Amino acid sequence: MPTPCYAPTLRWLVAFGVTGFLILANLVRPVQGQEPGASAFWDGVKSWVTEHGQLQGQIVGYGFAQQPRYGWQNPENQILDLSTSGATVAFRPDVHLAYEWAEASVRPRWEWQYRHWSEGEKEGKESWDEEAFVNEWAVRLRPLESMMLSYGRENLQWGPSYFLSPTNPFFRDNGRSNPKQEVDGMDFFRLVWTPSFAWSFSFMANTDEGRQDFISPFQKGYAIKGDYTGHRWYASGVFSWKEKAEGHPVFGGYAGATVGEGLLVYGESTFQRGVTGFYAEPQMQSPFGLALVRSKAKQDFWNTTWLLGMSYTTRWGPTGVVEYVYHGAGYDEEEWERFLTLVKRASTSLTHASPTENLARNILYRSLDPELRLLRRHYLMLQYQQADIYRGHLDVVVRYAVNLDDGSSRINPILDYELSDHWILFLVGTKTFGGAYWGWGSRGQSDETEFRRLGDYSFWLGLEYVF
Amino acid sequence: MCKKRGRHGFFKAAQWTVGLFVVWNLGVEGLAWGSAMTPTDILSRCDRARGNLDGIVWKLTIEAKEGERLENRFLEIKAKAFDFLANTTDPPKVKGQKLLMVDHNMWFYKPGLSKPVPISPRQKLMGGASYGDIAATNYAQDYEATVVGEESLDGEPCDVFDLKARHKKVTYDRILYWVSKERVVGVQAHYFTLSGKLFKKARFEYAHQLPTSEGTQPFISKMTIIEVVAPDAVTHLHFGQPRLVPIPAATFNLNLLRSP
After folding, report:
1. Which residues of B16-34 are buried (b: 16+ CB within 10 A; e: fewer)?
2. In angstroms, what CA-CA distances link B222 with A4, B51, B110, B216, B239?
3. Chain B residues with CB inside 8 Å of A140's CB?
4. C-alpha distances out from residue A345 to A70, A73, A286, A446, Å
5. Which chain A residue lies closest to B82 (C-alpha atoms)?
6. What is the ipTM of this complex?
7. Fewer CB near the terminus (10 Å): N or C of chain A?
8. What is the pLDDT of residues A332-382, one digit of tens each?
């Protein structure tokens, strides 16, 4: 686990956010016996804040239990240091102020975490952590009615898909698998021009990694995005590049259509010459005979990723979603074999305390994030969702993703039960499958499958107070 | 001369008679539909009273009642023609949820989601109300209309229109639509499935008036929805007093839907 950040500036920002919260919550009142002028001043502040401010947020508390796998990529839990259970309480206010052509917002966060290890090297150990930070903030200005300029720490996401958003060059996690866990923000400058109801153009500059933590050094990135909305259809084009890129720029786009009253179809695709991700390649100098290198970054071939999806809502309420993904940058069978061979050699070296321990550790870290959106090439995702069931209290999403290359799969149930207007009971789970029993494409060992190599299950059960 | 005058007088009289007949007919018909109103024109007027206007803001309260259970939801709607942005303001469990419709494409966003998701108009909003129900109707373009009868609703004479979908992209395949002869607004609708089954009924009230270049026009104030499969479940949509305001295009920009 990364060490919590206690930077004083962040604490000040949190303090500022909480103070804003208190003001917005109308807790600031004129003191008894004050001058009428002062009372009028506070009344003015209150009415200004009420008119222009908005406060909402949650206090989330949950406990979790998970069963990690201590396989090749995480031998004896030395790399990921995964606990087996724990609890978190998080205070997440969102404060937003808008006045004529200016807007500002801040999302300060405070989290208290408890972790417990019931097996592995840390068996019987516990830890308590506290962290205060600002996950997102932004200032937006509108110099023209059709133009918006903004700077801040944001979570910028787009596209119609659930499984992944290939055209987004900044965020690989689209926050879908666990909506109770926030995606860490990064710093962006944005210019959005809306010349008409149909057209919109955006320029985005990713200036800092913000709350994200990458293994490779951060590189500034840029994207230009054009959006068109037609009658019952829409399409967007995205062109993105990195400042000091090892690879080439990426072209991409997505489109969707409302085909019938309950039927939506959509697709998303990217094209890039070469691939910037890491591949296990033979290397004589390496004690493992192989190394993870960006071997395809400068290759002159078009690498594509495309996603096709459709969703159908029945008249009775449930919605079904199907998405197929072809991920051209993913490992083919031969590349996957080499990747596993390298991981196994590094893992064996680490567990036998050899002189190559540090190198082995670095390889295993890198193997957990070889800078590919997915490890293999063909995927299928099925989703069932229904809101307002059981007397309007229960919302259910069940997502099932299958790696068609190795036969492993993952199921994510997400349940929200509304206890009252403020209280929500939730369950978010992940159960993975993979190994010898899972039929077509299935590999012999669970540790050799993408979805099951790191864990068997993880379940969060919690309570959310929304305000 | 006399003969001539006589013939002239006859034609004159005939012209007057025809003219009077036409004027009388126009007058009587005009009281109800206007002289040259086709079913499409009538539906266009009905559509305008359901929100098809240039820049309008109003508050919407949805009240869903099922047996003893009563649930409310409050939204603020910004609309222009058939496009709208609905922002849920209360209760807290749904506060900040947004629904955007641009040119019949719909997206839904709620706090906690990283990005808006595309949804179909059929997806349920609350109780018997679908997201499509808060959008302005475009029956004039989306449906082929035929008058199939007359009926009085609460003492108000109405013509009954049978609306059949011109294409498969509409929320309802077939609608029976009761249109007030005097006010030219839709006062009741029965919605049917593709197999011809009645599954939903709605009543409409128009207590609001909006200024237009030709005076004022009625504007929807209440919609009551009853699902046939659950007749004890009644959903009321109360539309607050509308305000005519200019709506910039950026309001409906999907890239700006998530608050900073």
Report:
1. eeeeeeeeeeeeeeeeebe
2. 53, 12, 26, 18, 6
3. 260
4. 15, 10, 11, 17
5. A231
6. 0.85
7. N
8. 999 999 999 999 999 988 877 778 888 999 999 999 999 999 999 999 999
